[in-house]
UniProtKB/TrEMBL annotation:
Keywords for the protein's UniProt record, in alphabetical order: Membrane, Transmembrane, Transmembrane helix, Transport
Name the record gives this protein: Amino acid permease
Signal peptide limits: none
Membrane topology according to the record: Multi-pass membrane protein
One of the record's GO cellular component terms: membrane
Amino acid sequence: MSKSLFRRKSLSTILKDAKEGLTEAHGSGLQLHRVLKVKDLTAMGIAAVIGAGIFSTIGEASFHGGPGVSVLFVITAITCGFSALCYAEFASRVPVSGSAYTYSYVTFGELAAWVIGWSLILEYAIGNIAVAISWSGYFNNLLSGVGLELPGWLISNYDNASPETLAAAPHIAGLPIVLNLPAFLVVVFITWLAYVGIQESKRSANAMVAFKILIIVFVIILGAFYVNTDNWHPFMPNGFSGVLKGVSAVFFAYIGFDAVSTTAEECTNPQRDLPKGMFYSLIICTILYVLISLVLTGMVPFTQLKVADPLAFVFDAVNLKWISYIISISAVIATTSVLLVFQIGQPRIWMSMSRDGLLPKPFSKIHPRFKTPSFATIITGILVGVPALFLNLTIVTDLTSIGTLFAFILVCGGVLLLPKDDSNTQRFRLPYINGQWIVPALLLLFAVLFRGALAEKYSFAQGWDVWKHNIPFFLFTIVAILLSIFSFTRKLSLIPVLGLLSCFYLMTEMGIKNWIVFTIWLLTGLLIYFTYSYRNSKLNTATAVS
């Protein structure tokens, strides 16, 4: 059984399945519309990355890190850049939908592919629930700006509803009806848009991206006139550890570029365009985030930025209250575009898993007219819309980020296992840099520079309640040492090794509770795999027939 758990799909088989479609599921080899070009992919990446982070979570990150949070955006961009290079290598060699799930199937085998697919469900679905709830807040602020108010019981949930809201709500059998209707309705609209076609989705995404970039550039230029450079001193008031406290919020903003790779089968030239789209969007978003963080921390002292709407707050502080309305409009547009990209990405991962037999066949069904994974799109809408209607899941950035980082780690590690490609095809190739001496040297340099912090982490004198939070870092230490040894003995490629280590290190900055919840999520996924997916896998049935 151990060998069958790590059975891998060949590149030729994956490309064949993508070309023919899953005929058993719907009787014909329907394929997705190939309409996306570089500008569309870049827009989708920006649409996913420039979202709630720039309007809300950046305030919390700035409160902890001060002006130095701008450095954190650069660090995160470099980390994502390593991963993006690895994604680009895979996307050019495996130009099919499925993202990290498909890439892991090629390199690590079926069990790892299932685990990463299950992790991506956490990233996309739960993350989008939070974005939908955040969208509702921005939308309600926008309505308030024009003098409109929805009843409190239509924009709340049972966790945060006030006694007055519960009393005013209609009751059924004595139970007050409290729900977040705007969050549900926007998910319904976005799901419909994703259902009717990629052409309509790309036009909507392009328009929203153009609008919000204009607004953000306007805010940066206007805010620059009110920057007091004294607020930038000290640059890292809480040290580098304070900067890293915002890592989950900052990384949550960056996870969107992963969704670009799920549209491979809808690109006119995926081998050429996917890498460009990911890199262009990553560069543009990093520049915007760095500039907006410097403006925020320059307009007011960083200690005042622990607010839900930092952009509106800083302009209120300089008596430009009229700008808040423009920011509210932009926030609604920005979060709508994030919802759209993730509602496009999730069904295509399920479609790929269904093609392989790991999910039921309806998930790979393609609509004969719209050429979209119709059933998977509807299920995605239900799984996001219903919880957004009732639950309070606004604080899930850590949990979503840890799932994404895990996916990035497997993608970076998978590149190290890819067979050498000597073909002359015009595609992106990850530049090879021998990590034999560089990786051990960097690890040694890291140990020397941060020896004080390392000594504290390895100290048992703090007691179990404190020490247990260092367990993820110990796992990182073991992996880092092993990779240094392998880099030296096997001359591993530097870029994927740095991508793997940097993503793993960022995971150690997540709280131990998030690791526990993430582990429970993975164990639940393994239960589903061994009770359904293992037996129904196409590779398993093919082995049984032979």
